Amino acid sequence: MSKKLFLNLISCFFLFIQLNAQYEMEPLSVGEKATPIQGIDQNEKFVNSSQILEEAENILLIFYRGSWCPYCKKHLSQLQDSLQLVLDLNTSVIVVTPEEGPSIEKMIGKTGATFSIIHDKEYQIMNNFGVSFHLNKETVPSFYKFVLNNTRKANGNEEDILPVPATFIIG
Predict the structure, then answer these.
(1) 3-state SS string for 87-127
(2) Helices marked H in the chain
(3) Angle subtended by helix axes 144-155 and 101-111, to nearest 10
(4) How many CA atoms lie less than 13 Å away from 159 in the CB half-sphere?
(5) Alpha-carbon span 13 to 96, nearest angstrom
């Protein structure tokens, strides 16, 4: 399978999941220019997508809700297990979450993640990619109190904002 076909298949798969997850979202569309991503990762390293793209052909950008989310843990564990396949395609990985440092460290402990994870403190990256939403009983009808309590604890605030679990390929 060619690299381009592989990346297109991944993109379509995650776009389908993303669109079904939140009906009122207006995520960045295929072919639209992505806003540059900047932030500090768990290793205190400054991450800048423009600089990364000077060396890598693509960036695999993933948004996750929290270390409390079993689906997010599974997703990032599988990403870590397949990380070398992604890197072999000259693709760098950036993961974005609203979680604060201690919760990111918890996720790293559970998944063995070695890729950059950025705390999107003010939701700027999530907003730029159109994946942030306000947590309420309509957006999360099942397990609302569980999600609300865990989000507030992990994010260190009561703003109740989460990203739709989403994946983008930027090149």
Answers:
(1) HHCCEEEEEEECCCHHHHHHHHHHHCCCCEEEECCCCHHHH
(2) 3-21, 49-55, 70-81, 83-88, 101-111, 124-128, 144-155
(3) 110
(4) 14
(5) 19
Q: Sheet of 91-97: strands edge to edge?
A: 116-119, 91-97, 58-63, 166-170
Contacts of 42 (CB under 8 A, 6+ apart): 101, 104, 105, 108, 116, 117
166 touches 27 (CB < 8 A): yes
93, β-bridge pairs: 60
pTM above 0.85, yes or no: no
Instruction: Kindly report, residue by residue over 3-59, the tens digit of the pLDDT.
Output: 655 554 454 444 444 444 444 567 777 888 889 999 999 999 999 999 999 999 999
CA distance 14 to 131: 13
SS3 of residue 168 by DSSP: strand
Which secondary-structure segment (H or E) carries 133? strand 132-134
Strand 91-97 to 38-40 pairing: unpaired
Provide the 3-class DSSP secondary structure of residue 148.
helix
